[in-house]
Each structure stands twice: as structure tokens, then as C-alpha cells.
Amino acid sequence: MQFVDAVRTGAAALSSPGAVVLIVFLLLYLGVVLPAVWSRRSHRRHAAARVLKLMLDQLLLVLRVLAGLLRR
Question: For 11, phi and psi rounded to 5 degrees?
Fold first, then answer.
């Protein structure tokens, strides 16, 4: 029974908002940021940099909207 309880506790910990944010951040970092920096091929670096710029622009837009909503 202890193993089952440990698995349930681990699954509950992974479903917390902080863990979800951490997992998403790590996936984005590994999939976009590292190729933008470390790839030997310039076309991969440029493509990853474009995706990173698009993602950051969208994030800034969302943050501006949220800031505007909080000011009301």
C-alpha cells in the first residue's frame, strides 16, 4: 500500500499549478531557447529565435492585458 500512496502523492504534486508552470517552462526552454543559442546550424538558430520572439511578444501582450484588467 505504501507504493500506491507514494504514486498518488507524486501525481497530486505534479498537478499543482507551480509544477505545471515549471514543466511548461522546462519544455519551452529545451525546445526553443536552447536551439536558439546552441545550434551549429544557422537556419535552426534563426528559426528558434523567431519562435522565441513570437512567444515573448505574445507573453508581453497577455501581461499588458492582465495589467490593464487589474488597474480597473
Answer: -65, -40
